[in-house]
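Z., the sequence and structure:
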Amino acid sequence: MLRDRVRNVFYTSVRQSAETKEATTSKFKSVVQGAVERLLEDEALRSNLTDDEANILINWAIEWLESRVDPARDQATARQAAQAEIGRLRPALQEINRRLAASEMPDAGASLSLSSSGAAMSASPDRKTLIRSLIAQKVEAWSKK
């Protein structure tokens, strides 16, 4: 019962944050909002994250979706772009969530390289820094394709 209440509070909080953010910037508001809601429904994308950590991921997902959906020429093309990006975002968010599981934190921090030169960090980063670094790695990898 407590877990359900916590989940509902979290979902409401993140959804309100997501709706506020995307309402101010997206040309295809309803398309982005629908895509974000589909992401928020999947607990596997955030089960190992605090609310603040999940907000970092959700805000990045919103920005990514907007950047890919807004250039569309019409609503149908925007929906197709959103669907394609959800297919890319969902596994990325799941991977980040898994890497942040408590049992994996030491390995994730030790093996994460933060610079483009590939220099590894000598100390484990805090979780928010790790999330931002993992996001940056995804963006860099996706930009090369």
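The chain has one domain: 2-144. The two ends are 45 Å apart (CA to CA).

Let me know what you think.
H.
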